[in-house]
Every structure is written in C-alpha cells, then in structure tokens.
Design a protein that fits this description.
The structure is a single chain. This protein is mainly alpha-helical. It has two domains: about 1-85, Transcription Regulator spoIIAA; about 100-350, no CATH class. It is about 75% helix and about 10% strand. The chain has twelve helices and three strands, in the order E-H-E-H-E-H-H-H-H-H-H-H-H-H-H. It has a three-stranded parallel sheet with strand order 1-2-3. Helix 7 (about 180-220) packs across helix 10 and helix 7 (about 180-220) packs antiparallel against helix 12. The N and C termini lie far apart (about 85 Å).
C-alpha cells in the first residue's frame, strides 16, 4: 500500500527541528509519497532534512516519491538533487596490491621532492657563500636558537648518559679487575657513536620540529605563496640560513656533549671505582684517537643537514588547517630521528665493518 504524507508551511531553518521530528515519526512501508504541494518556501536546511529522510527510506527499502512541489520549491530541490540508488556506483574495496602500489607511489613522490629540495639547498647555500648574499644576522639568530639555547638540555642529557654508561660498565669491569678500561668505554663510544647520535636525536626533537612548525605555519598563512609572488625562492630565504646555522652549531654541540658526558663518566670512575683522576685521563688520551673525534664530527654535520632538510620538507608539504601543522611537526620528528638512525647504521658499516 502506497502511503501519502503531506508537508505544509515553510521548510526553513527555523522549522528544521519540527519538520525533522515530523518525518522521523513516519512509519516506513513498501512505498511512500511525500506531497510537497503545500510547501511555500524551502531553503538548504529543508533540503538537507528531506535528503536525510530519503536516505533513511532507501536504507529501509522504502520506495519514496516526492510530488507536488511548486516551481520555486522544485528549483531549490534541483540544486541539491536527491541521490538515485540506481545510479550510485558501488566501489569495490581496495585490495592489498592497490594499497601497496599507493604506498610505493607516495614514497616515490616524497623521495623525489626530498631530493629536489636537497639539491636546491646545496645550490643556494653554495651560491650564498660565494656571493656573500646571506644575511649574517639571520644566521646568527638561528645559531643562537639551535646552539646556545640548547646547551642546557643537551648538557644535562649528556652528563646523565655518561654517568649511566660508566655505572653499567663498572658492574662488569670490576669483576675482572679491569676498572681502568671504563675510560675506553666512555671515551670511544661517546666520540664515535653516542655523542653525535644522541645529540642529533635531541636536536631533531627540538630544532627539526621548530623548522617544520615555522615553515608549515607560513604555508598555511600563505606567506610562502607571497614569496613566490614576489619572485623570491623560499628555499633561499627560509631554509639556507637554517642549514648554515645548524651545520656550524651541530659539531659544536656534539663536542660539548662529548665533554660533559666524559666528565660524568669521570666522576663515576673516581668516586665509585676508586680510579685516580690522573690514571683516568691518561687512559682516556691513549684510547680516544683523533680519527674517532673527526668521525663523530663528520657524522654530526650529516645528521644536522638530514634534520633540517626533513623538517623543511614536512613544513613545505603542510596542507589544510592548523591541525596540519601539528601533523607535519610530528612527522618531521619521527622521520628525522628515523633517518638519523639509518644514516648512523650506514656510517657504522662504512667506518667500522671489516
């Protein structure tokens, strides 16, 4: 049996709640005719209510016919046509191979964008050094943020790492009467490996996130587009000063972290293992070679450029609203730390694998 329901009055926003309750109370049978001959006016709120009712009727299996609409009402309904179930194309769920292909395509796109950004950074950095067009004030301000303002947190972390390493090593070395080799353990491991790596991880969380957030905010507020409009390259004016600053400050921070960490191990060796200060420093000078220090500094320069380039890429690829800046910042930290660890593993194979 085809039931019929008549809508009356105005289907506008001020009556949206009443009309919605009226339609919600209808019993849905096999077929239903919605008579709109007595509807005077309708706006987008009324169309949305009718569309929601049509969707509920379709899900219930009810055949719905809308009849009697005046010319003005019909014209408004035509602007927002109700979905026709027969014309809705059913899309099959994406399979595993399609997901894999999408992942590979996205990774390729991001990889190419990163390589192009790195090429631009190298080109504009060399150009700025040769032509002396970079503003020294910008570089100095970035160095203050990336370097001097990070001394506290890097120093505290390094001191604790050095002390913990010495304590953990002492528990084993004392069993063999080899406590003096705590200087080798602390000095070599920090100079070669842990000093550059831990400092880079700390800088990735602090500086990499700041770079991504700053550039991402400029993308959202269309400041980067304004630079393009004025004929200025964003890489040259935004990223190159940061690259030059972190390239200078990261080796200094690494050396600072090494010294503070070795001092922490020194205190543990003197007050816990009863090793004389002179014996500790003599053994340290024999164990730590110039090659170890230079290797750590070279690593720190590479890690620094990885951090700032990934942060800049995540910032430039920011799209959407304010929440997109948060996602870009998170991505820059995770990707920066991951790539630093991958690069460190590659350096380990290159320098230490026989």
């Amino acid at each position: 049996m085809n039931e019929r329901h008549v809508l009356e009055g105005n289907l506008t926003r001020d009556r949206a709640a009443d009309v919605a309750s009226e339609l919600r109370a209808l019993e849905l049978g096999p077929a239903l005719t919605l008579d709109m001959s007595k509807v005077v006016t309708i706006d987008t709120a009324g169309v949305a209510i009718v569309a929601a009712f049509a969707r509920r009727a379709r899900e219930h299996g009810t055949k719905l016919d809308v009849v009697g609409a005046s010319e003005n009402v019909a014209r408004t309904l035509d602007l927002f046509p109700l979905p026709d179930p027969s014309r809705i194309e059913k899309v099959a769920p994406q399979g595993m191979l399609e997901d894999l292909a999408d992942t590979i395509a996205t990774a390729r796109e991001v990889g190419m964008a990163y390589l192009l950004l790195c090429a631009d950074i190298v080109w504009f950095t060399v150009q700025a050094i040769v032509t002396r067009t970079v503003r020294a004030r910008d570089v100095a301000m970035q160095m203050a943020f990336m370097g001097s303002q990070a001394l506290g947190v890097v120093g505290l972390m390094s001191f604790l790492i050095g002390a913990v390493m010495a304590l953990q090593g002492a528990a084993q070395l004392r069993q063999f009467g080899a406590s003096i080799f705590i200087a080798d353990l602390v000095g070599v491991s920090l100079a070669r490996e842990l000093g550059p790596l831990l400092t880079a991880i700390m800088v990735a969380g602090r500086t990499g996130s700041a770079v991504a957030a700053e550039i991402g905010t400029m993308v959202i507020t269309e400041e980067v587009d304004a630079l393009h409009t004025m004929g200025l390259n964003p890489t040259r004016f935004l990223i190159v000063p940061k690259t030059m600053s972190i390239t200078i400050t990261q080796p200094l921070l690494t050396m600072y972290a090494d010294i503070i960490a070795i001092f922490g191990g020194f205190l543990v060796a003197v007050f816990y293992l009863d090793i004389g200060p002179g014996a500790f420093w003599n053994r340290l000078r024999e164990a730590v070679l110039l090659k170890d220090i230079l290797t750590g500094l070279f690593k720190s320069v590479v890690f620094a450029n990885i951090i700032v380039s990934i942060g800049a890429l995540c910032g430039l690829r920011t799209g959407g609203g304010a929440d997109a800046v948060g996602r870009s910042t998170t991505t820059s930290v995770v990707a920066g730390i991951f790539m630093v660890i991958v690069a460190d593993a590659g350096f380990s194979l290159l320098f230490y694998f026989d």
